[in-house]
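re: that complex we talked abt at group meeting.

here r the seqs, copy pasted straight from the sheet so there may be weird spacing, ignore it
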Amino acid sequence: MSEGHQSSYDTLKSKKSLAEILETAISFERTARDFYSDLIPKVSKRIRYLVEELAEEEQHHFDLFTELKSRPDIDQQIHTLVELPASDKKFSDAILLPELGDKPDDQSVLQYALGREHAAMEQYHALAKSSPDGPIKELFLFLANEETLHKNQLEKLYYETIHSGGV
Amino acid sequence: MSKPIQDSKFSKQSTQIEHDDAGSILSPLKALQFFMRKPVTVPLEPRPAADNYRGFHLNDHEKCIGCSSCQKVCDNAAITMVKVPHLPEDPVKGIRNLRPAIDYGRCCWCALCVDICPTSAISLSREYVHTCTQEEIDSYFILPDETGIHGEYYGEGWQKSVDSDLLDLKRQPMTELDPEERIDNFNEIVSGYTDQQAVLEASRCVQCGMCHDACPTHMDAPEYIRSIWQGNLEEAVRLIYQSNPFSHVCGRVCTHRCEDACSIGRRGEPISIRWLKRYAMDSVDHQRIKEIAAEGKADYLSGKQVAIIGAGPAGLTAAYDLIRKGHQVTVFEARKEAGGMPRYGIPEYRLPYDMLDRDIDVITSMGVKIQTGTKVGIDITMAQLQKDYDAVVLAIGLHLGRSTRVPGADHSQVFKAVDLLRQTTDGEKFKTPKQAVVIGGGNVAMDIARTLARQQKQQFGEVKVSVTALEDMAHFLADPVEIKECREEGIDIYDARGPQECVIEKNKLVGLRTWKVRSIFDEQGRFAPAYDEQDERIHKADMVIEAIGQMSDINLLGDDLSEALEWQRGRLSIDQQGRTSVEWLWAAGDCVNGPDVVHAVADGHRVASSIDEWLNQQ
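got the structure back, here u go
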């Protein structure tokens, strides 16, 4: 196998269709939603609001991404290959469910949620950067913005919860 | 100043009137010279007067804070404070939406209102003519603003000057131990006022009452300050005890919101209200204080019993109020001794525990029983308390420390500040670090840093403690005095540093790695830290102490009660009276309203009042 062949193979491996990327993103939101939903009855009632809000937020993102995928302007681009960024592995790993124990506290839940939002934010920013101008880039920028907004909200909540006397 | 008149024709001698002298017989003829001349009359239109004239009042509504000092000083009762609804009102900042209205039927233009005004908002104008018909007689009662009585500005006449200012803007200095005198011991730093200093300080007060409005428990500070000034210290204590049974504590470590609102602080140094309270409390014999506190206590038993969980300021204030109303009160305290966070969170150089003991002794002398070393949830359940008592108060404070959970934070040489402070109070030995780094910028961070500094000085002869905080110095949460004293004691403070890792080499903690915080808050003022990863620093340490936040240990509630209770975003949901969603349970103090001793006292009063009302209906 020549070096040229190897290079072509790597290039092909480093790209995914927009359909695959959106499917991964939808899967990312779905697993998170289910994870938080399952967690709701397990955590103390004191912090249940937090897990309920996270589940709602992920449901909102799930609906949003599903709707985006079926939009006509995106549908036309659905087979376009998009170069995968270095953050892809980290992003894919974040789909996996974490070990927070049977009764995680508010800090564990918040740290996990922050980590996920950060991975997603980085992923969509990187995808937008590697995409040519047009609807696909705009789509990734929109997704990146959504994740950034949520991450910012969580960071504020983290500070208010952990750094301010706990009440 | 007007010049003395020199002309001899106006001399005292020449102006004497000969009353018997009827004058010349030609006088009537002389008067004829004025016949047909245009009469000379002074017009009744407004017009300006001399530069320093005491004309009608002007009031700069932007400067005026509605403190009512002008009204209080007015001997003629010519001033009425009028509510102006569209103006801002914020008791915590010392702003009322009241403004002085002047009754010129009473005003004597003495200008004491100008001379006492703490903000210099009031002056007198150079306009001095006002007349009206009988129908407009109310126009002599005006709400002055910047423009003047007729809406036309003639300039300021009499106004506040250095000579006429009635306020003393400098507070009496407080004697404190020098850094070298205090760094190797836990002796109290502040000495307290002498009799003379206290009277002089009390004499600065204008009795406006802004402090009363700002205080969470609405202490009658103007009244007890007046009593101190009059030398009636027992009356001062009586007034203090009307709203605060933790007065030795609050006289030393209160967050003194009252002083932030003090009207004298607008141009000068606010009255030292906290130190005056301390002076009054320290000056009266403890036995006499107990007698004063017991005045008005119910001479009957209601037959109702109340359990209080937590013997801190909130719990014991509630206990004090309830026992005064004839209810039997038992306080359950998990720690070895009563006192809550003032004992287990505040070092003795700020609050000697024998002073805290005096406050507690007053409360127990009234009949409150305190069961120390009793852990609710372990030694007795909430269900048992519900069964045995008519009402239960949860006043459990914030005794659990939060962790950053950065890598390495679970190392055995990483501690939480609240745990070390508790161990220090209980006399439990722990190995003093040779070099320590504290994470946090609040008062708890300062308390543990200064505690360790003293231990280091005693054991090693030198201080090696650093404090790192996310906040920059402009946003530090600690009291500025704490920061100043920290530095005086040789503690290094690194602001705007974000902890990234507790550095561990060969299983030994060697330091804390931090990044520079470029910004910490977003445009809405909420947390959104941005770091400069290039600006990294390793703070060498063999102990890292986290002092970033605290929370309540709610495990004592148990699963069933936790489920039955309503919560509001992580807090126990309570109504305005401090009652939870469960009929028999109230909550008060730090666990529901955040850490602050005087707020806890106010909370204690609130729940006691609510419980008493409820018990009386049973």
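couple things i noticed - Confidence is low (pLDDT under 50) at residues 1-14 of chain B. The CA atoms of residues 435 and 489 of chain B lie 15 Å apart.
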